[in-house]
Predict the structure of CWF19-like protein 1.
Amino acid sequence: MAKVLVCGQVDEGKGEALVKKVQSVVKKSGPFEFLVCLGWYEHDPVLQRILSGETKLLMPLMILGGDPSKDTDNVTFLADSGVIKTPAGILVAYQTDVALGDDISQCDMFISRETDLGLAQKLSAKYHFSSSKESFEESLLGALRHISLPLVGSPQAEKWIYAFSMAPVRSQVPAKTKNMKILLCGDVQGQFETFLKRVMSVNSKSGPFDLLLCVGNFFASATKEQDVKVDIPVPTYILGPNSAEVTHLFKDIEGYEMGSNLTYLGKSGILTTPTGLKIAYLSGIEATTSSPCTFTYGDLKRFEVECQLSVSAGVDILLTSPWPRDVTRYAADVNYEHSSGLVSHLAVALKPRYHFAALNNVFYERLPYRNHIVLQEQDRPVTRFIGLAAVGNRNKDRWLYALNLTPMCHLDLKELRRQPPDVTESPYKSLPAPVKESVKEEARQQFFYDMSSPRGRGRGGKRGRDFAHEGHGGKRGPPQSYQKGPCWFCLSNAEVDKSLIVSIGESVYMTLAKGGLLEDHILLIPIDHEQSLSALCPETQREVEMFKVALQQFFSKQGKSIVIFERNYRTSHLNLQVVPIPKSKEAKLESAVQDISTRYEMELVQLPEFASLKQIAPQGVPYFYMELPGGKRLYYKIQSRFPLQFGREVLAHKDVLDLEDRVDWRACEIPREVEDSLTKKFRDAFQPFDPSQSQN
C-alpha cells in the first residue's frame, strides 16, 4: 500500500507555502512514497533550491511539465505525455499539451492540466487529478475518483493538497490478458479470520486471482472500525450496507478505497476492468424510501438509464445483495427468505451473463435461463444465477466461488449467444410491473414561466447581479431546497394552467414558455414530479429524447437549429428549455458561451461523448447543462453562486439572437389573447411532427 501526495500548480512565490505544508503533512501522516505537483513556476527560488539539493522535501517529487534535462535523483519532470512506474509499482499516466498515445492502455493514476474524464476511464484509472483555478472539487464516476486541485496557497481554496493511499491494482491485471480468474464470496459478516484463511489458501493453490467480488453483508453489527483494515491478497470489491447498524463503517456512501486491496464499490454503477470485463453492482436492499442501505424504484430506474447509456451491449456480471424474486421458477426449488422484485426487473433489463447474490445463507446454482423469446427474438447470451452462502455457515454450504471468464468484448457473437442444452425459460417472464403512481388527467390554470427568479435589487434601486448564492466564502451551503406544498409543474396539481400546453405525451408534456425569448421558446416538462434531467426515470428520458428529435426536425424545416439547456438549482421540477436559433448563428454559439462565462468568472466543461449526465451529476448536485447543435454538451457544477439567467444571456448575445433587451422574462410578457393565438399557431404547425400523436 503506497501513500501519495498530490498538489495543485505552484505559481511564483508559492514554493515556500508548499514546502511548509508538505513538512506538516509528513510529520502528521507520513512517510509518503512520492509527491506529484501539477505544475511549478520554473524560476521559483524554492524549486531551484530543491533541484540543487539545498532544500529537502523528504520524498521524491514529480512535476507535470518542465524540462526533463533538469531531472535530479529526487525530482522528475513529466514533459509532454507518457507513463511512469513508481518503485511501489504504481502506474502514473500524464499528459500536458501533447496527447497520450494509443500504446498506453491502462494506469493507476492519470494526471493532466485539463480534466479529461473520458481518457481517465479509457485508461481504467482509479484516480484522475487535474488543475483548477480557484476551488477544490472531488467526485466519483463509477470506480474513477476525480480530484480537481486549485493553485497552491490560493486564498479562496479550502484545500490544494491531497493525501491518499493506494495499491497498484492496475499493474496486477495485465491489459492484454483476456481470460480473468475471479473469486466470488457470500456474506462475510465480519468473519475475517475464516474468510482470509480460505481466500489465501485458494489463491495459493489455484491462483493468482485477478479479482475478489463480495456480495451480501461484508461487516457484522459488532465490527469495529479497526477491523476494517484487513490485508487481503487479492484486489477485493464489496457492496454497501444492508442495514443501518453498519452504515457508520462506510465513510463515503458513493464508494472509496477502504484499505489495502479493499474497495467499496458504491451505491450503484458499472466497474470496467482493464481487460474489458463489465461488472454492474447495486448495493442495499429494496425499500419504499431511499437511504444509505436501501434502494427504491426511482434508484433502480436511474441506474437502468445509466446502464443503457454506457453498456448497451450488456454486462458480464451483476452483483446484488438480495436474490431476485421468482428466480427458482422453471428450476430446482430452494427455501429462501430475502428477495427483491426490483432486482428481478434489473436482471431483465441488464441481461448479465452471471448474477451473484447472498443474504439467504444457502448455496444455489440455477440452471442458465434465456433472455429472449424463441423464434420471435434474436438469440441473446444466457444468464447464470448463483446464490452464495455465508462465510463459516453451519451447513458448510458453499460461500466461495471461483470463475474463469473471458469478457464479452473479446468473444464473437456466435460463441456469446450459444444456448446450452440445459437452458430454461426466463423465470421473470410473468413478473408484474413495479407499481408507479398514476397522474390525474384533469389539470387547470398555471403559468409556465421559464424557471427564472426575479432579479434582486441593489442599493439605490439599481438592478443587482442575477446570482443565486450557496453559502459564504465560496463554501458549499445547504442542499437544494425542495418546494413545499403542491408543485406548479405536476399535472396532478389541480391548479395547473393548460393554456400554453402544446402537446401531452405519456410521461412528458410540451408548452410554450411564458415570457420566452422568442414566440417559439419551448419547455419540456415531466408529467410526474421529477427534479432534473440527471434523475429522470428511463420512460421519461426516452420520451424527452423523442420530443427533442421531433423539435429538431420541425425547426430544421425552417432553417433553424435548437439549443437546449437546464438549470438544476433552486428548482423542484425539471424544466428543459428548447430555443431555436438560425443555423447561420451556430458558429457564434461557443464564443457567446465563453463571453458570458468569462463575465461571471465561470468555466463550463465539455462532457465526454460517452458519459451520461447522471454519472457526472448524481441526484442532489446543482448544475447548469447545455446542448449545442452538433451534439456538444456543456456542464457547470454550481458551487458558490450562479447567474440565474445564464442560458438566456448566452442566447440573447448580440452575436446569436441579438435580444439583450429580452434577458429578463418580465420584459417579454404579452397579453393572454396573444398567448392563446401563438399556442394554437404552434400546436397546428407542430402537429405533423408531434410524437404524442403516434402514441395515441
The CA atoms of residues 331 and 367 lie 7 Å apart.
